[in-house]
Amino acid sequence: MSDASRWSRFLRFGGISASVLVLVLLAALAWGWKRLERSLPQLDGARALPGLKAVVTVERDALGIPTLTAGSRQDLARATGFVHAQDRFFQMDLLRRRSAGELAELFGAAALPLDRRARLHEFRSLAGRVVAALPESERTLLAAYAEGVNHALATAPRPWEYELLRLPPVAWRPEDTVLCIYSMALDLQDHSGKFEQALVTVRETLGASALAFFAPRIGPEDAALDDTTAPLAPIPNERALNLRASAPAATPTAQHRPPEASVLFGFATDGHRESKPGSNSFGVEGTLTGGAALLENDMHLGLSVPNVWYRARFRWTDASGIAHDLTGATFPGTPAMAVGSNGHVAWGFTASYTDTGDLVRVQPDAVVPEAMYLVEGRPVDFERRRHVIRVKGGDDDVLETRWTRWGPIIGESPTRHPLAYRWTFHDPAAVNLRLVALETARSVDDAIRAAHEAGIPPLNLLAADRDGQLAWTIAGRLPERFGHDGRLPVPWAYGDRGWKGFLAPDRIPVIIAKPGDVLWTANQRIVGADALDRLGEQGYDEATRAGRIRDRLRELQAAHAAGGRPVTPADLLAIALDDRNTRLDRWQKKLVECLDDAAVAQQPRRAELRRLVKEWDGRARVDSVSYRLVRAWRSALANRALTPLFAPCVEASPRFDFRSLPYELPLEALVDQKPLHLLAPEYSSWENLMLAAADDVVAEMDRQRIPLAKATWGERNRLRMQHPFASFLPKWVAETLCMPAQSLPGDSDMPRVQTPSDGASQRMIVAPGQESAGIYHQPGGQSGHPLSPYFRAGHDAWVRGEATPFLPGPARHTLSLQP
Fold it and tell me: Residue 182: left if φ>0, alpha if ψ -120 to 50, beta else—which one?
């Protein structure tokens, strides 16, 4: 046979094989697609839901937002569990596994860092104790919710995520709802004493004057509701701190790069986050609207697919025959409305950064320091606990921890004393389901009472009622300290310091707005004096964002006082979408001043930098080059100025990060006053350091191969809202599960908080009783299923900041859940 004949036969054979391969591939894709389609939830018709006392209707609008109408709150909880499981069960599963430390059972060894951090707190066993201690009414609600979840799982094809993981979903238990609350606590709370450890590291390495200067409790530009401020402490003198007298090794030229947080399976890992969890909430008292008080709330959290919140409208009639109707955002895994409005009261939350945990300095026994510690001078055994973490596709991982009577050992101080962590969430009494009382609140006073009884991570509550009242307080449980203020670690061994339960409701501060007044919270310090002593601090946000909100609200006040129109939801939306960074105005001026003709003559690239940063309006617009360059310079300046200064802190505690401190005003004071003794020896002057930071900006853009003139903020600030599977699926598949990587306006020091993976997880503006005029939007869609029309529905409105309706629209689908 000739070579041509053999080649012809080979091609024919190869062609047939290729055709078969294509057919097999198409058949596999069709099979997979059908399996994926089968897991879509039922939206219409009738469905039995055992345990119901009466029919519950579930009407979904064009965005997939359900309106649930039930005959009782218990039936409503059962139906909510059913609907949550239909659209978001995998998210619920991850939330409970996050706090229980069981993610590795799904994702393998890659999840062990998250699991090991969570297992320290033993939330799985704590959750069981919480449920056992709840009153019967709350246990009944949790049981009904769990039964609704499990019926949805049992009577439908398993969710698509488990088809991919090749694992069965595990049934929901009442204690899993408590685990979801603990998961939120891990996100919103300092669960390892990191902030307090940063403070003690500064004090023990740099001294008390450095701590007072770099980490003031109260600052000169704070935006507290009680208007309290204090001057910035003096710059530490040469005797306290002198970089020029240090050996070169103590003032490294390399910029310290602490670990950056990343998103792993939808949860932030340990490390620095560009924008820590926070939120905005602000409002105006009814005099300014001519009726009900008006409330805005946007909660800033890590952004992932699906979104943390699930929109819903609840309607039911209670045992007294009173009809209830409320709308807002629910937290999948729990049966309550998290934030919203019930026609009488609207409420929202922001992270409070109040102090819920204390580091306790432990004195080890001199003879057997690894086995015993001292209490009132007598040795007591450390309690050793062993946790086995199951790992998919690998060997079990074993975590061993040491516990004291105050809590687990989490590390040591710079003086090498072991530190135990006493945290409110190690006490089962810190968690309950009493947040549901907000659903039926009829006034601000009712809302305050409910907040003080609620067992949730301590949050700022802002509540508005239809009679025009507006109020702030703290929701959740806070410790009642004695013998110390909780700011720095102290020994508790002799019983003269510690906690005596939780703050009584009458000890929790409350602020009621006066007629015509405004209130705001943006994770800043809210109060001073004795009230601050009771609340403590756990790293309040600097006040730039809060101050901008306050100033914009006071502009509305002034306009109204001058005879202007009533304040409307559109006015508050304009504030919420404000992308102006007033703090950077000052840094832009400093940068232009340092880029004088002499500086430009030394380095020609500085001329283009100067020209671009002069085109300044202070807004984090997607097309702004000046904003990105000025912001980058401020960051480079902070690294060059503060890295050598805090080098001893890093040496004493390698995870120390100066960015966890409120360093903005202290840095500005250093640049303005130019103390030579706090300037690293490598620089001849502060001007020299400032120019080196400017050159860093140019070099970084060159490294990224971005021409300076094209270095827009939008090019850097692209949305990275990903599905937990995105980290291990092929890119082309992962992209179908994630939200588009769109350029977004906003940043961290302004009302419109937005970074690539953090930002407003929802945004609502509503006056109770006027819900039809309210505004709501949130990123992502209602459904966690990529084939659902509701997977991305509504997302574009969030991207554009559109004023979409607070209430659900007309029903497109109706499902009848029957006893």
Answer: alpha
